[in-house]
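Re: the request from the purification team.
They wanted to know what the chain is likely to look like in 3D before they choose a buffer screen. I agreed to run a prediction and write the result into the notebook, where they can find it.
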Amino acid sequence: MRIKLIKNIYWYPKKFYYHKMKIFQDVFTNDEVMSDIFPFTLDYDDVIMKVASKYKTKDSCGNVDIGCGNAFGGEEEGGDGEEPAEKVIDVAFNAGLVETPFSKSDFMTFIKNYLKNMVAYLKENGKENRVADFQKGAQNFVKSVVPKFDDFTFYLGTSESMDGALVLSFWENEEAAGPMFYFFKDGLKEIKC
C-alpha cells in the first residue's frame, strides 16, 4: 500500500520513495517551458504535446492540495472583505512563459523559420527518421491554427528569445478550467531533477 503525501513523494509503511521530476527545456534557448507535474497527451503524429491548464491564484500555483481542505492550517475561505487574489494560468505561470503578441504574418514568418530550424536540429542530432513525421504533424498543426488564429494566445520562454520555441494556447472547451497549451515535443529536451 502506498499513500501519496505530496507531489512525487510517496509513503510506504516504514519507507519513503522519491520520484524524480522531469523538466522540459527548449532545445535552442534552454528555457524551462514545462514540467511533468502537468500531464500531457500527444497529437498531430506525436509532434504536439497538449497540456490542460487551470486558472489559479498566484499563491496556489505550485502548492499541492492533498485533499484535506483547511485541516492543515490553510487560510479560511469566505468573505473577509479583502479583494480577490489575482488569478493566473498555472502552466504559463509555473514556467514563467511570457505572453507575446503576433500578427498572422509575423506568426507565419516565425513558424516557417522555427520548423526549418527544427528539421536541421533533428538531422544534426541523428533523428533523420523523425523528420518526415515531424514535418507532416507540424504542418497539420499549423493548418489547424491559421483559421482560428485570433483565438490563440502565444508565449515565449523566460529569455523571450525569438530563436526558441513558441508555445500556443487555445480554449478547446469553453467549460474547461483553462485553455489547452500546445508545445512542439521535438523542440524540447527532458531534464530529470
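For the purification team: The chain has a mean pLDDT of 81.
Please add any questions underneath this entry.
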